[in-house]
Amino acid sequence: MPGVGQPVMKQLRNNVIRAGLGALYFSGAHHLLRPLLSGVGAIFMLHRVRPAREGAFQPNRHLEVTPDFLRATLSHLRARDIDIVSMDELHERLVRGRFERRFAAFTLDDGYRDNLEFAVPVLREFDAPLAVYVASDFAQGTGRLWWAALEAVIAKAEQIEVQIGRSALRLDATTPAAKQAAFDRLHDWLRALPGQHDLAREIAALCLRHGVDMDALCRSLCLSWDGVRQLAADPLVTIGAHSISHCNLAKQSEEIAAQEMAISRARIEEALERPVQHFAYPYGDREAAGEREFALAATAGFKTAVTTRPGMLFAENGRHMTALPRVSLNGNYQDTRILPVLTSGAATAMWNGFRRIAAA
Predict the structure, then answer these.
(1) Do the Cβ atoms of 35 and 340 come closer than 8 Å?
(2) Does domain 40-142+222-351 have CATH number 2.60.120.20?
(3) DSSP character string of 71-139
(4) What is the pLDDT of residues 196-247, one digit of tens each?
(5) 302 neighbors 279 (Cβ within 8 angstroms)
(6) Radius of gyration for the chain, computed over Cα atoms and rounded to the nearest angstrom
(7) How far is 134 from 138, CA to CA, in rounded Å?
(8) Distance CA 160, CA 89 (A)
């Protein structure tokens, strides 16, 4: 079957990452590398915070961490005497070169309901600020969380029929392993489609065929505008923008990409009656955010814009405030032993080939 190799490669990659993190921990190499690689701070990236779910088929597990793992991360940072700061304070320290103390910021993408229910109470325990980047269509209740919709489609199906190019595929979905293989195949195909309208058309067709209501799914998972306002009322919370539709900005024309930034910001500012000064690129990897997008965010006047490129912060990042890297708190690696490895900078340095910054 075409695409059978993708899930195997993804599992292999996960195993390699897990083994690499373990090797750094057990060898103690991260202790030696910390002075060289830990930089001045880090921005931690999360999406969802919720209790662990039962079930073998959880293809979006990497987007979820438990409240206990978040609590362990915060405890680790406090034990290392690392300041936990807002994105405004992080911007100030980078721009002014205030590096007498190391610092960390916490960011959550998309605007999920569980951020308010589970993340905020944990962060409050530590008096720790957080930034939540809201995609305005998600708050509107009309957004396409296509990765969640794809999970819902495959969870309820035993077979998926789909036309990919000239090939009509029939994908088995009778077992958890088969469902994961089908998810990986379709996820990669959808991400690679040339335009947002192509992705919207194909996921809508899958949802229609399998009885998944994408609007209802969005409303059940994401904060409404009332929820966003409730979140924003907490003095620890900064609300940032995350585009209108959560599209791949690099695949849009310059005009559309600029509108996705500007209109999403304007909608949030109207809802909250306060300025929005921070941005997160949807997807945020090299295929979704590059020099053009970094320049657009700067032109739009955002103080900071964050990617999903892995990396610690160094003094040089102060010259690239709309190309900031983050450290992912990934639901596939919720082992408290890896926390010293993550904060040492060793893991992200190895991933980046020991380049300090990647702003191009």
Answers:
(1) no
(2) no
(3) HHHHHHHHHTT-EE--HHHHHHHHHHT--SS-EEEEEEEE-BHHIIIIIHHHHHHTT--EEEEEPHHHH
(4) 899 999 999 999 999 999 999 999 999 999 999 999 999 999 999 999 999 9
(5) yes
(6) 20
(7) 7
(8) 48
Type of residue at 147: W
Torsion of CA 69, 73, 76, 80, to 10 degrees: 180
Token pair belonging to 189? 């195909």
Of 252, 233, 232, 234, the residue nearest 243 (C-alpha): 252
Query: Phi and psi dihedrals of 177, rounded to 5?
Result: -65, -40
Q: Is 360 helix (H, G, I), strand (E, B) or coil?
A: coil
Q: Is the pLDDT of residue 8 over 50?
A: no
149 SS3 class: helix
For the chain, the residue count is 360
- How close are the terminal C-alpha atoms of the chain, in Å? 37
Q: What is the pTM of this model?
A: 0.90
What is the Cα–Cα distance from 107 to 38, expressed in whole angstroms?
A: 19
